[in-house]
Amino acid sequence: MEEEVVEEWKEEEKETKDCDEDINPPLFDPEVAVELQVSDLDLESAMPDAPATSTTHSCDDMRKEDLQEEEELSKFFEHGCGCSDNCYALFSHSYIKTYRCDIQAIAKPVQEIAIMSQMAATSTMGGLSTGNHRRQKEGKRQFFTFMHQGHKICRVTFLKLHACGKSRFEEVIKNYRMNGLIPRVHGNAGKTPNHALTYDDILRVVAFIRNYAEVHGISLPGRIPGMKSYENKKFLPCSTSKRQVYLEYAESCEGLYVMLTLC
């Protein structure tokens, strides 16, 4: 009798273990893991209406400038810098891309100051001449050593890192040799351009805009929160574009036989 009770108890315990194994399968088992992955894929394929989530941006979302930048860097890493040391290989593609973006994010005068500062830190003057002359002359030519992150690099890699062209770099070095660490000033700075508007032209443009606003402008129906002096604000109707306003201004200038000016 006791033996039968013990056997029944063992059978019940075995059934309980089997149920536990079915309910909680061992996730560390490779076969079970494969089955779980397949079932997850089946669940995803069973929901065609579910939106696909992706953290990467397509090429259509990138700006034209970004595509040109990526193409330029790809060509640079494909062909190399051209020097015997292959110094471009000291830096990764992502590092050069990030460094160029940081340089391009600041104003151009600051970029040129950064370049001139590095040139000033690594510049050397020529030593004594080694010719057959009795009297040796001290060289006046200035030499630059291109450095970045403690590495000696070539000129091509230096310009690529700083997003600087060859002609622009030559102008920056020319300015440094003549004026020192002073930002370049454009030659036309402070000069009045030849196509500048005269005072009569400005008055004519302002009068046309005011008259056009009185005839075609739409006033606000009431006060809008956050907008000051709303009584004097007028808007163009939706059917009128800025190009249409300019064409009417050009037509009025032709009728008055006056010089056409941009408004």
Automatic annotation (TrEMBL):
Q: Which domain of life is it from?
A: Eukaryota
Biased composition, Basic and acidic residues: where in the chain?
7-17
Q: Extract the ranges annotated as region (Disordered).
A: 1-26
This chain's protein is named Uncharacterized protein
Species assigned in the record? Amphimedon queenslandica
